[in-house]
Amino acid sequence: MAPEMLHGQEYDQSVDVFSFGIVLCEIIGRVPADPDFLPRLPDFGLNTEEFRLKFCAEDSGCPEPFVRVAFSCCNLDPDLRPPFEVLEVWLEGLSKYLSADKPLPSDLIMDICQFVTQRQSGQVQQVNGQVPPRQTTQVPSPIEFSTPSLLSPPPEGTLLAGS
User: Fold this and answer.
1) Does CATH place domain 3-127 in 3.40.50.720?
2) Which residue range or ranges hold the Protein kinase domain (predicted)?
3) Distance (Å, rounded) from C-alpha 40 to C-alpha 58?
4) Do residues 98 and 67 lie in contact, with contact meaning Cβ atoms separated by under 8 Å?
5) Contact in structure between 15 and 8 (CB atoms under 8 Å)
6) Is residue 75 a contact partner of residue 117, using CB atoms and an 8 Å limit?
7) What is d(CA 83, CA 102) in angstroms, rounded to the nearest whole number?
8) What is the pTM of this model?
């Protein structure tokens, strides 16, 4: 769960990016997200220094740009996390070149490595010439999640699929 949610702050879709980053770290480290295995900070963020020491040795085989993608997703500042539109471009590029055993293009590496710096300096990342939108999500109350038709048993005598 993203730190801003745990602190009771307003949040948007960037909480999903944080969760995705944690999943990427689980894959890189081959460990569950449990704080006993995945190093966390007291403010619920990812301890990237400890993570790098434990799981990103030179012989780990994990490409540095992939680690940086994961870390950028886990940024404590939700405004500095990449939107999924940007992640899609990065991950497709990494997949394309790494699966073909080709060197990564320098512009892809630069985009990944400089993303947070660009966001901090006000240079917003663009995808296909457009700035990906940031939208605040209204969280429905638990009662809005329930759908009576899905929770109620079918009427007596109704044949179910496979019966």
Assistant:
1) no
2) 1-98
3) 22
4) no
5) no
6) no
7) 26
8) 0.72
For the CA atoms of 120, 38, 54, 87, what is the dihedral angle to 10 degrees? -40
Write down how long the chain is: 163
Distance CA 53, CA 127 (A): 33
Over the stretch 57-109, which tens digit does the pLDDT of each residue have?
888 889 999 999 999 999 999 999 999 999 999 999 999 999 999 999 999 99
Torsion angle, alpha carbons of 61, 42, 22, 138, to 10: -160
Task: Tell me the domain boundaries of the chain.
Answer: 3-127
Q: Which SS3 state, helix, strand or coil, does residue 24 take? A: helix
Task: Specify the DSSP element, H or E, that contains 86.
Answer: helix 84-99
- Contact assessment for residue 75 and residue 114, using Cβ atoms and an 8 Å cutoff: no
Q: Is the pLDDT of residue 144 over 70?
A: no
Using the structure block, give the residue that is written with the tokens 């730190």: 3
Closest to 44 in 3D by CA, of 82, 97, 84, 8: 8
